Amino acid sequence: MALTADSRIELNDGHKIPVIGFGTFAPQSYSKEQAKEAVMAAIDIGYRLIDSAFIYLNEVEVGEGIRSKIADGTVKREDIFYVGKLWNNNHCPKRVRPALEQSLKDLKLEYIDLFLIHTPVEFKPGDDLFPKDENGKVIFHNTDIQETWKALEACKDAGLVKSIGVSNFNEKQLELILNMPGLKHKPACCEMECHIYLNQNKLLKFLKYHNIVPLGYAVLGSARAPGWLEDENAPKVLEDPVLNTIAKKLKRTPAQVALRFVLQKGIVVIAKSFTPGRIKENFSIFDFELNDKDMKDLDGVNKNLRYLSLKSWEGSPKFPFHDDC
């Protein structure tokens, strides 16, 4: 079946997720109001999946953007698929539902469509988003991830969220959930960094086997914002010569080809920009296809390069990106 802008993929719990989403993370140099305006523009263009997170600190504005487009009749609530995330300081079971309820309060929505554990790394429970010791090092915690998952299952059963999943998990960490005794709801999605320099083929095979839908972020590479890019000399996705050669051949932008590549790998693709022209450009990827050679060539530039390597969190027992993971 050919992919269209309206295509949705059925999750393992029966809900359906749009194949393209709009990401709302932005560097601190962007105002919160810009997040609202960008979400409104994205919905006008046709995006129906809105990906955000509590730690982005803009759920109030993102919610305003969504609700404004519902109010003016552009969409209905059921048309929008909102993705939220549980931050690292709230893995303790008793903190899971309050964290979700805070996001709902900020968004002014009655439910979240997909709620993800943002990362497997856990910080010291409390209201400090980045708790640190006297030496400035992050204070980690080690709640059993199965207990955190049970709390998410309870939120789903309560109707606060339609689907639940994870983000930035490796296979072993996913298996801890999949193999837990009394599992009621398996992860519906796994969000992960994915682009031509990180094709994630091994993890994708695992997710397909377990019927878990992959979501790809950083598809266009790093935003190169302070606190985001850890290697300033890392190559830029959109400057890759193979990508640019294919884009020139197809008379498309490198960004469109990069997005289409991930989409054709069977991954829900998240595009991120606060520039109206780019928001529209990134959505225009449904009127062309990459042939088998294009896909193979792009798959071949893989460098296993992570722009978000989380190296400062390597001291956590739950660090997900060790080489043997």
TrEMBL record:
Substrate binds at H118. Keywords: Acetylation, Eye lens protein. The record marks K85 as: Lowers pKa of active site Tyr. InterPro entries: AKR, Aldo/ket_reductase_CS, NAD(P)_OxRdtase_dom_sf, NADP_OxRdtase_dom. GO terms for molecular function: oxidoreductase activity; structural constituent of eye lens. SUPFAM superfamilies: NAD(P)-linked oxidoreductase. The active site is at Y56. Residues 20-302 form the NADP-dependent oxidoreductase domain. Belongs to the aldo/keto reductase family. This is Rho crystallin. It comes from Engystomops pustulosus (Tungara frog).
